[in-house]
Amino acid sequence: MELRRHQSFLDLPSTDWNRLVADADPFLDHAFLCALERHGCLGEATGWHPLPLTVVDDDGQLVGACPLFIKTNSYGEFVFDWAWAEAYARQGLRYYPKLVSAIPFTPATGQRLLVDDALDKHTEIRRLLAEGIVELTRETGCSSAHVLFPDERELPALRSAGMSHRVGCQFHWHNRAYRDFEDFLDALSAKKRKNLRQERRRVHEAGIELECIDGTAITAAQWAQFHTFYCDTFDRRGGVPTLTLDFFRAVGSALGARVHLVLAHAEGTTVAAALSYSSRHTLYGRHWGCAAHFDSLHFEACYYQGMELCMRNGLTRFEPGAQGEHKVPRGFVPTLTHSTHWIAHTGFRHAIDDFLERETPAVARYAEELSTHLPYRHSTSAT
């Protein structure tokens, strides 16, 4: 088998790449990655430079792959290492560029060492990819390598390659085969059940109507309206909207029924929108924007509509995005996420390992403590 590096996702065969993607993960779909590259979301402006790795067998068949990037900043990663970069700078050292395996601007857990588990040599291929990331870090002179939000099954290969393990915390909702939203509410304590009903009622009493449409039916005008909301959200927070309108249109067309847009209408005008994606088993909430504030509309469009979509489509898990302790009383369970890191500088590697040794139990305690505030009648703990 041979490890190869590439300068673009566009050069890789889509059918062979997608054959390695498990669970129809929308963010790992070749079309999603190519849309990022083709429509102005990668490159100098955003600091994400494609450098995908592949493994081919003796017959030249693609049997492994890794979505890899050279990064010149830490934006759009959701695993925060700004303090590490500042420590490097204080010592007169260069932290950027670095290597990152992740989905740009997307804090969703998924494969980072793509391989078909049906292959006899799937363990060896994962090991080859993990070791290849570290070796490429050395060859390119990058300060470090970071694998963000990998599937837990990939951790042994990444740790064996010498990478340090870091944990984070998100909040995920689990569909316990609920028949409908009322069935879900029945699983909550009386007080929490009342609170959620009140939030939904406020939206209804404000005269707001909601519709959920998938990528096969989203019109050009609806994409344009959504993108306006998306950009306004960043503008209000002083951020930069990195995903272009052409990107969203391309992904909607390519992924079709795996793209979901919730639109909120008041008096004939669209006042808010929330975008999510789905795999075979998981819904991923991604972007939200609104024209004005409406009480509880964010919870309705971003959370409760997503829960109902999971129930309708038989999806078992809902990842609504990074951070947000306010999700806990609405039924989202504190869930540990993972990343792995290889630091070229020996001194900093030891210092970061020491930091992670202290951070890991603190994150675990944080997740467990938040679990005591879950709204369910029966105990549910952090996962």
What does this molecule look like?
The chain has helices at residues 14-19, 30-38, 82-90, 122-140, 155-160, 181-185, 190-205, 220-237, 245-255, 297-313, 346-371, and strands at 2-5, 48-50, 53-56, 62-66, 68-71, 98-101, 114-115, 144-148, 164-174, 208-214, 259-266, 269-278, 282-290, 317-319, 333-343. The chain has an eleven-stranded mixed β-sheet with strand order 2-5-6-8-15-9-14-13-12-11-10. It has a four-stranded antiparallel β-sheet with strand order 1-3-4-7, with helices on one face. Strand 12 and strand 13 (282-290) form a beta hairpin. The chain is globular, with a radius of gyration of 21 Å. It is 37% helix and 23% strand. It is of the alpha+beta class and 383 residues long. The chain has eleven helices and 15 strands. It folds into two domains: 2-168 and 335-371, 3-Layer(aba) Sandwich (Aminopeptidase); 176-315, 3-Layer(aba) Sandwich (Aminopeptidase).
